[in-house]
């Protein structure tokens, strides 16, 4: 790959779901030998957590599973993301709508997909990553399991996606 393929994972505040997916995706890409070929970023459609670390409960679940959540700082999704990213993945339908609303063109909006569109267990009506913010640690563990399963399929798909971009 000449230039890295760029993936952005987006939720509401960029402190729970999208940073969990970001950390897991980076880890799985390294394991697959694709760490130099794919760059992962994450953001939130709301900017009130800009610059903050991820939620302590999300970080704890990641640490317990062997991941390093320490580098994350929340960012805000913006129109500029379209110029910097090949694939944008939304955690829920509300995030998807907010992201598409900011797309410069209809063609740009086509690069926005639901994160769980890569989940082999997702189906119509069950394609969102639930927000664990208001629940207990079980919700964060459930999100991590969903993220890991989805990321495994995404990592398999990324080389072909990147190859199509280069044509």
Please explain how this structure is put together.
The protein is an alpha/beta fold and about 170 residues long. It has one domain (about 5-160): 3-Layer(aba) Sandwich (Rossmann fold). The chain has helices at about 15-30, 55-65, 80-85, 95-100, 105-110, 135-165; strands at about 5-10, 40-45, 85-90, 110-115. It has a four-stranded parallel beta sheet with strand order 2-1-3-4, sandwiched between helices. Helix 1 (about 15-30) crosses helix 6. The chain is globular. The model has no long low-confidence stretch (mean pLDDT about 95).
Q: Would you tell me which CATH topology applies?
A: Rossmann fold
What is the overall silhouette?
Answer: globular
CATH class: Alpha Beta
Q: Uncertain regions: pLDDT < 50 for 5+ in a row?
A: none
SSE sequence, one letter per element? EHEHHEHHEH
Secondary structure tally, helices = 6
What number of domains?
A: 1
Rg, nearest Å: 15 Å
Q: How confident overall, as mean pLDDT?
A: 96
Architecture per CATH nomenclature, i.e. the level-2 architecture: 3-Layer(aba) Sandwich
The main pleated sheet reads as: 4 strands, parallel
Class inferred from helices and paired strands? alpha/beta
Percent range of helical residues? 40-55%
C-alpha end-to-end distance? 11 Å
Task: Name the CATH superfamily classification.
Answer: Response regulator
Strand content: 5-15%
Major beta sheet, strand line-up:
2-1-3-4
- Counting DSSP E segments of at least 2 residues, the number of strands comes to 4
